[in-house]
Amino acid sequence: MATVRKFEHTQTKTGARSHTEVDATIGIVESNGETFIQIDTFGSVDREYPGKLSQTLRLSKKAYQELVDMGKFLS
């Protein structure tokens, strides 16, 4: 599991390879008196254990807002 408190912006990347699509859930969790957005991803159908929890990412309020702001640049 990873907790993200801030993002460092990088240059736009072009020509990146495509990624495997997976299922994900998103929810609100509280830990040590702090509230986070938590995203859980699950193994793709090609994995040894399809559907098994794969990665968890928690975003602090600040990191979440940075992500929302960055999303405004998508066309």
Descriptive notes:
The protein has 75 residues and is an alpha+beta fold. The chain is 15% helix and 36% strand. A hairpin with a 2-residue loop joins strand 2 and strand 3. The radius of gyration is 14 Å and the shape is flat.
Largest sheet: 4 strands, mixed
Instruction: Give the oligomer, counting copies of the same chain as homo and different chains as hetero.
Output: single chain
Summed up, the helix count is 1
* Structural domains: how many: 1
Question: Which structural class best describes the helix and strand composition?
Answer: alpha+beta
Helix fraction, binned, reads 10-25%
Mean pLDDT over the residues: 91
Low-confidence stretches: none
- Specify the overall morphology: flat
Following the backbone from N to C, one meets helices and strands in this order, namely: EEEEH
Strand content: 35-45%
- End-to-end Cα distance, whole Å, is 30 Å
Strand order of the largest sheet: 1-4-3-2
Radius of gyration: 14 Å
Please give the number of β-strands.
4
